[in-house]
Amino acid sequence: xxxxxxxxxxxxxxxxxxxxxxxxxxxxxxxxxxxxxxxxxxxxxxxxxxxxxxxxxxxxxxxxxxxxxxxxxxxxxxxxxxxxxxxxxxxxxxxxxxxxxxxxxxxxxxxxxxxxxxxxxxxxxxxxxxxxxxxxxxxxxxxxxxxxxxxxxxxxxxxxxxxxxxxxxxxxxxxxxxxxxxxxxxxxxxxxxxxxxxxxxxxxxxxxxxxxxxxxxxxxxxxxxxxxxxxxxxxxxxxxxxxxxxxxxxxxxxxxxxxxxxxxxxxxxxxxxxxxxxxxxxxxxxxxxxxxxxxxxxxxxxxxxxxxxxxxxxxxxxxxxxxxxxxxxx
Amino acid sequence: xxxxxxxxxxxxxxxxxxxxxxxxxxxxxxxxxxxxxxxxxxxxxxxxxxxxxxxxxxxxxxxxxxxxxxxxxxxxxxxxxxxxxxxxxxxxxxxxxxxxxxxxxxxxxxxxxxxxxxxxxxxxxxxxxxxxxxxxxxxxxxxxxxxxxxxxxxxxxxxxxxxxxxxxxxxxxxxxxxxxxxxxxxxxxxxxxxxxxxxxxxxxxxxxxxxxxxxxxxxxxxxxxxxxxxxxxxxxxxxxxxxxxxxxxxxxxxxxxxxxxxxxxxxxxxxxxxxxxxxxxxxxxxxxxxxxxxxxxxxxxxxxxxxxxxxxxxxxxxxxxxxxxxxxxx
Lengths: 330, 330
Description:
homodimer, alpha+beta, globular
């Protein structure tokens, strides 16, 4: 049983109550606690030594990554983050300067996003460091109402460039909070997700709700310089000592394109925004984006289709894209 | 550096923002998100295989414990829990029925408390199971305002009986949500805490805010039958196979009384409520409590004093009680 089958099974029986507007399965849960026009967002995420980062990675960058992963999910909802609590699992013999540096990273990333850290839990996790972050935020109810799911004909956009995670971006990415908020305030965002598991893994999950499919244009996918460099030098190893430990081998390497395009589709941990909105808003979006965020690329990479499944079109035609990014427990 | 020194150091530099009413250090954080008369509570807690439970413990009971620990903190605020998210760290080769049973326990305990589980994160934690729960709830602002901290002369109460954790209660305790809510609605609760680390550890932390001290009456402390039985048979081992793995040895055994009283003071994980309120409310509280909760003992165990430090008075006189319960990372 892999990670996603496990999650699907577990999600089937979760208890709910009247407060739940969006439950398990989306980027964040959304709850109605009686605020007249606002929903509460709730999200948790974790990083584990040796799984999400090498043991010799800079602890301040690890701390930043731990909180920025959660912030990236709030960004994907177009929400505003408010406060976080941290669970820190530590081997019994930890070094205080290391923990201080971890927290310096957590604190800095929180502060950059205007987030308070309001508590936590320290516990022994004898064999390795584990950091679990839970974060709350807010979202206008009007924004949640526009999130109808991907509709056939919708345009698919992505921010930034993809494929650079193994060269270090997985530790140093900036959650797209300002951009996510601006997007939901100014456009009818039907669906949005942060790219944590790779386009080939995340896009099918974004389409799941409405049962739609998509066609991606291979030549349109924005590939990062780091991914091109790694592909050109043929390096199978992370270019930086601080690269992530996963995927140690890419099980889907035989099924998705290799090289730089393969990295952009499947390496995961880009933490860019994957955006679905009505096709008629595509050009206005590109125009407004260039004025608002001139330094950050925004690229239309394909469109939503009524038939399920994701295809990748290149000069040789269209072929199915296997729905795999990084998967725990395969 | 032990756990509490670590936490103190880390708490000194946490980022805050305007939403924070109660930050790190109390049982739960409390946030003002603009609800007219309600604060939001946020709490996280974790259990780790081999630290908080034996590997052969019943997974459904482990799941219950994981969420009930957080619920116990909401109870100690007098709050109402709303929704939870779960981080589940699993070895790569997990057995699905085991995870199903863990979740059955999580779901049941959540449902019993009216709590929705609205998401989570599964990750590899290669060497052992780790469950981190984050929980939100609500609290009337009027209740938070009465929480002024322990004042000299205040009476100290405890619910239930203490010292039974190692005989199994640490897995099967019931969070005192109804009682906590009733207490804050009907009395001027100056301070309240759930007993997770033992009376000898938790009382000093409850007094910290106002710098007060306390005198406990040894003969008044309600000792559980399980603790008396274990002391009578001289069993140094958990009576049940599912007993907690901690404390494997009790480092403070030489400093606090041994036997059943020692267990009641220092074993921890009783998850009863420790309550501080004005002395003039002590008798009305006892009267009202007997009518409202006839099956659950409520005992006055001492009083708050102006001088710092906790003393334990028995027939031989009063002596200082060392401020130790269970401590990670000693």
